[in-house]
Design brief:
This protein is α/β, with parallel strands linked by helices. The chain has a six-stranded mixed sheet with strand order 4-3-2-5-6-7, sandwiched between helices. Strands 1-9-8 form a three-stranded antiparallel sheet. Helix 3 links the parallel strand 5 and strand 6. The protein starts with a strand and ends with a strand.
């Protein structure tokens, strides 16, 4: 079994804290769209949204990066939003911020499409890997540069269902 980095209990406690911050910041907002980045954000997003008391809509993006392993590739949209974001407030929900390339593309696209505001909520942040600066408005945990799995994060589509964040060795 993978070594536990962040336990299920720690995850749920931090999610409650993030939800309280988001509820406070969006308490007077009538047009919030929470956008999850598939597939990794699903577990985090579901638990986060269940804690929120504010009215909101839900939508999803799915992207893929094409290119070599060492160079940032072109970001392609595999599943686009169903909802229009023009004039709406968007909370982008992501599992992990790594180099920043994919998230920068998504954030810029949402702004280009006319969102009133765009904020990022990320469960995990690997600041040592960042190549493009990405503002994280709601951060769950900053972690070291380790290959993590569980709670939506995968290795070859496996381990997403672990109820904790683990480190995959080897």
């Amino acid at each position: 079994m993978p070594q536990t980095l962040i336990s299920s209990e720690e995850l749920q406690q931090r999610i409650r804290e993030l939800a309280a911050e988001i509820d406070r910041d969006y308490r007077n907002c009538e047009n919030l769209i929470c956008v999850g980045v598939l597939k990794g954000s699903v577990f985090f997003m579901v638990d986060l949204l269940k804690q929120l008391e504010i009215p909101l809509a839900v939508d999803f993006f799915q992207t893929s990066s094409y290119g070599s392993a060492t160079e940032p590739g072109e970001v392609r949209i595999r599943k686009d939003l169903d909802l229009a974001v023009r004039g709406k407030h968007v909370l982008l929900i992501e599992d992990i911020v790594d180099t920043g390339f994919t998230l920068r593309t998504i954030l810029d696209l949402l702004k280009f499409r006319g969102a009133s505001s765009v904020k990022l909520c990320a469960l995990l942040d690997k600041p040592s890997r960042r190549q493009i600066e990405v503002p994280i408005d709601y951060r769950g945990f900053a972690i070291e540069d380790k290959f993590v799995i569980g709670y939506g994060l995968d290795y070859d589509e496996r381990y997403r269902n672990l109820p904790y964040i683990g480190v995959l060795e080897g």
